[in-house]
Amino acid sequence: MRALTALLAGAVLLLLPACSSHSGHKTDKSPSTSHSHSTAPQQPSGGTPSWAKGMKTVTEDKLPPEARRTLELIRKGGPFPYDRDGIVFGNYENRLPKQTRGYYHEYTVPTPGAGNRGARRIITGSHDERYYTDDHYKTFEAVVQ
């Protein structure tokens, strides 16, 4: 009986990641948009959401105006000004919580005066997480309400 219980518990642990990940059906260029049926932990009123715990946080109104415009485009689903907007962000620097490939997507935040895409990005998670970096993935701030 103990062996059967252990086997069943192990099977549940193996199936949980497959049930909670949406990355299996996303393409590398699909934008991460808000979903009203998200199962992500919600932010308690006046508090920090659980996905942002332990991170530096910033409210959207404190971001540069270009970042606020990028967040608005993400909410609308585009159109995006850069070909690479919406591609999968690999999190190779491991500065965001570890997730399966395809969980995170990146969007360019234009930098005034830059001759290229610059270093600023918004990274989105499949459960409506939003992160801002202004130093090309060296540091991140969780964008909270």
From TrEMBL:
<dbReference type="Pfam" id="PF00545">
    <property type="entry name" value="Ribonuclease"/>
</dbReference>
<dbReference type="GO" id="GO:0016787">
    <property type="term" value="F:hydrolase activity"/>
</dbReference>
<feature type="compositionally biased region" description="Low complexity">
    <location>
        <begin position="30"/>
        <end position="43"/>
    </location>
</feature>
<keyword id="KW-0540">Nuclease</keyword>
<dbReference type="InterPro" id="IPR000026">
    <property type="entry name" value="N1-like"/>
</dbReference>
<keyword id="KW-0732">Signal</keyword>
<dbReference type="GO" id="GO:0003723">
    <property type="term" value="F:RNA binding"/>
</dbReference>
<protein>
    <submittedName>
        <fullName>Guanine-specific ribonuclease N1 and T1</fullName>
    </submittedName>
</protein>
<feature type="region of interest" description="Disordered">
    <location>
        <begin position="21"/>
        <end position="65"/>
    </location>
</feature>
<keyword id="KW-0378">Hydrolase</keyword>
<dbReference type="InterPro" id="IPR016191">
    <property type="entry name" value="Ribonuclease/ribotoxin"/>
</dbReference>
<dbReference type="GO" id="GO:0004521">
    <property type="term" value="F:RNA endonuclease activity"/>
</dbReference>
<feature type="signal peptide">
    <location>
        <begin position="1"/>
        <end position="23"/>
    </location>
</feature>
